[in-house]
Amino acid sequence: MRMMSRLGRPVQAAVARAALAAAFIAPCAAHADGLADLKGALARLQAQTPLKATLETKTWRRIGEGKAAEELSGQAAIALEDGSQGMRLQYSRELLSRMDAEQQAAAKNPNAKTPTLYAMRELGPEELRPMVSAAEGLARQLERGAFKSEKAVSYNGKAARQLSFTLPVTTLSDRDRKYIKDFNGTLEVWIGADGTPMASSMNVHATGRAFVVVSFEFKQEEQSVYQLAGDRLVVARKESKSSNAGAGERTEDRVIKTLQAG
Hints:
single chain; alpha+beta; 47% strand
């Protein structure tokens, strides 16, 4: 019995050390799979908290190059509510007056500047929904991408994990894809310890040829910063840049949207 007791002590100590090691390893293992953490966060951040916010958009477009280039910029802001009854948009009287004035000017002169009407193109429901229900929008992006890698980084001075994805040419429609010769698409997502998205960056670059003789190049970049509003993930800021070049023409666009809850 004394021999068994002496042998039992080392075994018990080994078991205790293993249990202690497991206690330290388990939390690390829980966060080792950033993609799983991200998907878990998106599943629990499905827009349930009612939201009241102000959304502002600033737009800029440049058509052509050199002295012949034409530039157009605009700015607009609306109030919105999103909840169990759906999404409601409210346009101020001042904004509606500006829109009316620009429509009247355009009716008299097709070359008249209409910066407010141009900015309002970015404030339709199809543009706003991904901002007020960001979890669903980001989840759709992940479905289109192929996971590539994960690494520990710092984002705005905070510990984060950067997840990298490739976006295949199949993200384009069959109609558009038949003109593409070279395509490169990437998606980067920065997440916190619990998988909550902090920011994302999407980049697309494509070149091709249409109608045999017309070569073109397309670039698109989207930078998004996320915030929490209760159990709802929202895009607090989104900056989109795009450029198209082909048939002797070049167009550049830049849009900045900011959402302020409360």
